[in-house]
Design goal:
There is one protein chain. The protein is mainly beta. It has a single domain, classed as Tubby Protein, Chain A (Alpha-Beta Barrel). 13% of the residues lie in helices and 44% in strands. Strands 1-2-3-4-5-6-7-8-9-10-11-12 form a 12-stranded antiparallel β-barrel. It is globular, with a radius of gyration of 16 Å.
Length: 194
């Protein structure tokens, strides 16, 4: 399943992070809902399930960490039947100054980094400054994933300027399954601060 462009919007609630994934219409507006995701906070083993709608009628895909509370945790993406269709992991060492992720799917391996190194460093410094670290600042950060074998663009996630987290996701490589792309896009928001 290939979707060349979609949007991710976070819904803020007290105990659960919720994400809405919408198709992009040809004119660039939000189209139909493709998936609804929930992330329960404070879980020892990270897991996010994607459903067909907000009523959670049917599970369509999910991702789950292989390890518990591990900054090196690798996450597997599963189809609705529980078969693995891809994976992703944060590269901890490379992420100390500039967040870096690896994304894999059949016949494809990509590496993604924050687009702007200066913003990456500013985000880290901001949290260390006394009194300012508690002030919320919506840093706009983007991720670009490229094929590790040749450097061709694979996936781009761009955060929009808004109070709530909103992303425009573009899938440039047709080998990347929408379910793996959507999982990575949600993980960039849900797991980024770890």
């Amino acid at each position: 399943m290939q979707v060349p462009r979609f949007f991710v919007r976070q819904k803020i609630t007290l105990m659960v992070n919720r994400y809405l994934v919408f198709a992009a219409n040809p004119d660039g507006t939000e189209g139909p809902l493709l998936a609804f995701a929930e992330q329960k906070r404070m879980k020892l083993k990270e897991e996010i399930t994607f459903f067909t709608d907000e009523a959670r009628t049917r599970t369509v895909f999910s991702f789950k960490a292989r390890q518990r509370l591990d900054v090196h945790a690798e996450h597997d993406v599963f189809d609705e039947s529980g078969h693995p269709i891809g994976y992703f992991r944060k590269e901890f060492g490379a992420s100390l100054l500039r967040s870096t992720w690896t994304l894999g799917a059949p016949g494809l391996e990509a590496r993604g980094q924050e687009r702007r190194p200066v913003i990456a460093v500013l985000r880290r410094i901001w949290t260390l400054i006394p009194y300012l670290g508690d002030v919320w600042v919506p840093f706009v950060f983007h991720f670009d994933f490229v094929d590790v074998h040749g450097g061709a663009p694979v996936l781009t996630s761009e955060r929009q300027k808004a109070i709530r987290d909103r992303y425009t996701v573009t899938v440039q490589d047709p080998r990347l399954d929408f379910r793996v792309a959507a999982s990575m896009a949600v993980a960039l928001d849900a797991l980024q601060s770890r």
